[in-house]
Every structure is written in structure tokens, then in C-alpha cells.
């Protein structure tokens, strides 16, 4: 159990006894003690008593003697709590023998669908796909480690009118030529060539339109050609995911096409429920509370006037499938913030239709944009979107060069391995270490710095711990008694026992900057400990105690970074 929860559990009965009703003790870390409770201030008006008097009575009633060295009433009515060293050492000792570092599996696992990445077939992945892929993968990793059944859903754009022109362009090139071009990863070139012919050639446009009709009608020959496009694109996407070191696989592809047969039944169900309205020839649902800038009700168009189905119909069919067929109770849509209104409307319709009723809920895990050094949307020198493979390759190359410069003893293979771990880790950490709702500037110097709140700083802290054990020639004894005589030892122990609370909070909020901030605090505390508390020069029980602190630090850093999808090299 983490300290914050332990103190909360000890204070809650005392507050309830004083107030006559359950009260949240509102325990949090404090600069004036280890922890602070300010719940007495909120009770003052209700009980018509001075908050300091309430705090004093709670102090007398609370069973804290075995946990706290001191409990003081301060200021207008705060309770300042200083944890006893023996209690803190006992919690650290418990963590040392716990393979899950104090984070138990959830008592009631859920089925969670995480919808993320979502590139388009026959188009290259660009920097705009990075945030969805990185944030979504961190969510999937974290929830899975906690024991939930996580279903990854890579909602590919693999259906619709553009495929008419793409298939016709494929036929013009010949299947073999097209397959070779696509297998070489030139998806953008393939798409742009098809688009140019579509814009300039009326005969090609007409062929493309007829091909769309054949595709949607299930023509076998057209479907075979469409599958060739999809297969080649999926192969390319998997190479990107391998480079980015995310957990998405070929089994996770869930293209728009997979819901094609469910579109009509979904719309029919909306009609049976009385939710469908005809507006300007289209079938629409008007979610409650959705209005445009003109104040008029805003429709979600599920079937267009020409009888075709739009993106909202696909999203509703996917939602209906995920809750009804898959039995998911938590749906996460990791998509940029500009799509917020769209998902609000989709979720509102899902609730109206009865597909989203407690405990089932859907969440739009929105995020901002990646900016260049000029503070504008990150663009290539030519003004287009930055290709993701190019960005990742540059990160690895820069990190590999730094690894060779810093440690010339590394062999070629190890330098390449370290370069990949550090480069990809730097990219991911830069994305996850800020509030995901905000934009951030991608800057190489800051991302790859060994100082500050960066992945390389944390990876270096981990490798520093491992170097201690290489020099010690022995592992830590998990059953060794932990003593906390020095302030730096105590500060490190305080951070270590806070891991569980952070993971639990992040699993709910999906605000991964809270986890990165914790890991950075831990690394800073370890650095101070490393400088002030000799480990290998210590002897006897003191040496064993400090080795336990080192081993726990390495384990927490490794596990925390793994939840973010970041590797921890043994040497840096």
C-alpha cells in the first residue's frame, strides 16, 4: 500500500467520527511535512467549529502512532504528517519483495477498446500520426499491466470513394509494377499520381466512379485489387510500428471496411428507436445540446442524400459493435482535439441509442499538435507533412552519434541498440511529458539532453544504477533491512513508495505527464542519493540497505518507462 492511501485510511475514520458523516481526508504531499490534510477547513462551516479545533480532535482520534513520527496542527487548520522512518523503511522493504512494486492487479478487470494510430491506406504515415500512436500505446500498455483486457483497434482508412481512383491507377501501372512501388514504401507518390490523373483526366474520373460502385457492390475482381492495396499498406505500417517500438500488430487492424456490413443495420436501429430524421434529403440524428454557431441544431449525418454512408455511420457502427459484440465497458478514442465536437455528438447518439449506458462509457483522449521551432505546425522543408519514418530515423541517427561520442567503448551493435532506445525514447517522452491537451515544440537538443525532464536523463539514471551492480558483482538482497539515516535516503524512499498511487491515477486520467513527472522526481532523488550516500564504499547492513534502494529505483524506472513504451539500456 502507498503512503498516501495508508494515511487516508487511518484518517478517514477519525474525520467520520468528528463530522458524523464520511469525509475525504484530502491527503496530499506537502512542502511543510511529508503529507498534509486540509479536510478540517472544509468541515468548519458545516460543524460551526474552528478548523484548528476540528484538526486537533481528528489528531487525537486517528490511529497514526505506528505510521507517523509527528502529527501537527498548523496554520488555519492543516494537519501536517511526518512519516516515521521505521514505517517508511518497512514499506520500502515490502516493495523490494513485491514483483509488482506495490501495484496490484485491478480487482474488477474491464474490457477496454483503445482506438489509436489510424493511418490511411495508400498514404504514408506522417508526424500527425505520432501522438495518437504514442499516447494510445501508453494507454494500452498501462491498462493491460493493471490486468484489464485491452483490445487494440487500429481504425484504418481503407474504404470510400478514393479507392476507385487508386484501383484504376493500380491497373494502369499493372499489378506487379504497383505492388513493387507500394512495397518500396512510396505510398505518397502512388496516391499523388492517382489524384493527378483523377483531377486532369475525365475518362479516368469516370472509370474511377464506376470502380467505386463495383467496390461497394462487392465485385470480386475489384475486391481483390482493393485487398492488394490494403495488404501492401499494412505491411508498410507494420515496419513503422516496429521502428517506433509500439505494440500494434497486424491482428489489430480494424479498417473502416470491417464495419461496412453493419452500416445499414446500425442506421435501421436508429430509425426503429425514433432517432432518425430526414434533413435536406439525408438521414440524420440530432444529438441533444449540439448546436452550430448560428444556434441551429447540428445534425450528425449517418446516410447522405445519395444513399451513401458517411464517417459518422462508421463510427456509430464501430461503437455499437464494440459495446454489443465485444462487450467493452470502456472505449478510448485517441484522436486529435479538432475532432472533439464530432466525438461528443457520436457519444451522445450512442447514449440515446442505449449503447452507452453505465457502466459503459466512451472517452475522447484528445491531444494538441506538434510544432516546429518557429511555433507553427511542424512541416518539411518543402512545406508538406513530415514523414514519420524520416523523423524516427533522424532521432535514432542523432542518438547513436551521441552514444558513440559519450561512450567510445560501445561496439557497433550495442551503439546501434542504445541509439534506437534513446532516440525513439526521446521522441515518445517529449510527446508524453507535457499535458497532452496542449501543443508542444519538437526540438532535438532538448529531447536528447542528458539533463532535465527527458528520456535520456531517466535512461542514464537507470544505467547508472546498473553500473553499481556491475561493479558490486552481486545483486541486492531483497530481504535486507532498509535503514534511512540520511536525508537523501529518506527522500529517495518517499519517491519509491509513491509509484502505485501515480500509476492508479494515470490509468484513470490518461494524463501521462503525471507519470513522467514522477519518474523525473525519482531520478532526481536518486542522483542526490548517489552523490551523498556511498553505496559500494559502505559496509555491512548499510551497504545492503543502500543496494536495496538502488535495485528498487532501477525496477521502478524500468517499469515506469515500459508503461510509456520506452526501453532502458543497461549501458549508456
UniProtKB/TrEMBL annotation:
Its main location: cytoplasm. It comes from the Bacteria. Residues 1-83 form the Arginyl tRNA synthetase N-terminal domain. Signal peptide: none annotated. Keywords: Aminoacyl-tRNA synthetase, ATP-binding, Cytoplasm, Ligase, Nucleotide-binding, Protein biosynthesis. Residues 458-572 form the DALR anticodon binding domain. Its EC number is 6.1.1.19. The keyword Cytoplasm applies. A motif ('HIGH' region) lies at residues 119-129. It is found in: Cytoplasm. GO terms for molecular function: ligase activity. Belongs to the class-I aminoacyl-tRNA synthetase family. This is Arginine--tRNA ligase.
Amino acid at each position: 500500500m502507498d503512503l498516501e492511501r495508508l494515511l487516508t485510511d487511518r484518517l478517514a475514520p477519525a474525520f467520520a467520527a468528528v463530522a458524523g458523516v464520511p469525509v475525504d481526508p484530502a491527503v496530499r504531499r506537502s512542502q511543510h511535512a511529508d503529507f498534509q490534510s486540509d479536510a478540517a477547513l472544509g468541515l468548519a462551516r458545516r460543524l460551526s467549529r474552528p478548523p484548528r479545533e476540528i484538526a486537533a480532535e481528528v489528531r487525537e482520534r486517528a490511529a497514526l502512532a505506528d505510521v507517523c513520527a509527528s502529527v501537527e496542527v498548523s496554520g488555519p487548520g492543516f494537519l501536517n504528517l511526518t512519516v516515521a522512518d521505521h514505517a517508511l523503511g518497512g514499506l520500502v522493504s515490502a516493495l523490494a519483495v513485491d514483483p509488482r512494486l506495490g501495484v496490484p492487479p485491478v480487482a474488477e478487470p474491464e474490457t477496454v477498446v483503445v482506438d489509436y494510430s489510424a493511418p490511411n491506406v495508400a498514404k504514408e504515415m506522417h508526424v500527425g500520426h505520432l501522438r495518437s500512436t504514442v499516447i494510445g500505446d501508453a494507454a494500452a500498455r498501462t491498462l493491460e499491466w493493471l490486468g484489464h483486457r485491452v483490445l487494440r483497434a487500429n481504425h484504418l482508412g481503407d474504404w470510400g470513394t478514393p479507392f476507385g481512383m487508386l484501383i484504376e491507377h493500380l491497373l494502369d501501372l499493372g499489378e506487379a509494377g504497383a505492388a513493387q512501388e507500394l512495397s518500396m514504401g512510396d505510398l505518397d507518390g502512388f496516391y499523388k499520381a492517382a489524384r493527378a490523373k483523377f483531377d486532369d483526366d475525365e475518362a479516368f474520373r469516370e472509370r474511377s466512379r464506376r470502380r467505386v460502385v463495383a467496390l461497394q457492390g462487392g465485385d470480386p475482381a475489384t475486391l481483390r485489387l482493393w485487398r492488394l492495396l490494403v495488404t501492401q499498406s499494412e505491411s508498410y505500417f507494420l515496419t513503422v510500428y516496429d521502428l517506433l517500438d509500439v505494440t500494434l500488430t497486424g491482428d489489430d487492424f480494424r479498417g473502416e471496411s470491417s464495419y461496412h456490413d453493419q452500416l445499414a443495420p446500425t442506421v435501421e436501429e436508429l430509425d426503429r428507436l425514433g432517432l432518425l430524421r430526414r434533413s435536406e434529403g439525408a438521414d440524420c440524428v440530432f444529438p441533444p445540446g449540439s448546436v452550430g454557431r448560428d444556434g441551429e441544431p447540428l445534425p450528425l449525418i449517418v446516410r447522405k442524400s445519395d444513399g451513401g454512408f458517411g464517417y459518422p455511420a462508421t463510427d456509430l457502427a464501430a461503437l455499437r459493435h464494440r459495446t454489443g459484440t465485444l462487450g467493452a465497458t470502456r472505449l478510448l478514442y485517441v484522436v486529435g482535439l479538432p475532432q472533439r465536437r464530432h466525438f461528443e455528438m457520436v457519444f451522445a447518439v450512442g447514449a440515446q441509442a442505449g449503447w452507452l449506458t453505465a457502466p459503459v462509457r466512451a472517452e475522447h483522449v484528445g491531444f494538441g499538435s506538434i510544432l516546429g521551432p518557429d511555433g507553427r505546425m511542424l512541416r518539411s522543408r518543402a512545406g508538406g507533412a513530415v514523414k514519420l519514418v524520416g523523423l524516427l530515423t533522424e532521432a535514432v541517427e542523432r542518438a547513436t552519434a551521441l552514444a558513440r561520442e559519450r561512450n567510445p567503448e560501445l561496439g557497433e551493435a550495442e551503439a546501434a541498440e542504445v541509439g534506437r532506445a534513446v532516440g525513439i525514447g526521446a521522441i515518445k517522452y517529449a510527446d508524453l511529458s507535457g499535458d497532452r491537451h496542449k501543443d508542444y515544440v519538437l526540438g532535438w537538443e532538448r529531447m536528447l539532453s542528458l539533463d532535465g525532464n527527458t528520456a535520456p536523463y531517466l535512461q542514464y539514471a537507470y544505467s547508472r544504477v546498473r553500473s553499481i551492480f556491475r561493479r558490486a558483482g552481486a545483486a541486492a538482497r531483497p530481504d535486507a533491512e532498509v535503514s534511512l539515516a540520511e536525508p537523501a535516503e529518506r527522500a529517495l524512499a518517499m519517491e519509491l513508495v509513491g509509484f502505485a498511487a501515480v500509476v492508479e491515477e494515470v490509468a484513470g486520467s490518461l494524463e501521462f505527464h503525471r507519470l513522467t513527472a514522477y519518474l523525473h522526481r525519482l531520478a532526481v532523488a536518486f542522483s542526490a542519493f548517489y552523490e551523498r550516500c556511498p553505496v559500494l564504499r559502505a559496509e555491512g547492513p548499510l551497504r545492503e540497505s543502500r543496494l536495496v534502494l538502488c535495485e528498487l529505483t532501477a525496477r521502478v524506472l524500468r517499469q515506469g518507462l515500459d508503461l510509456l513504451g520506452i526501453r532502458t539500456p543497461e549501458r549508456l
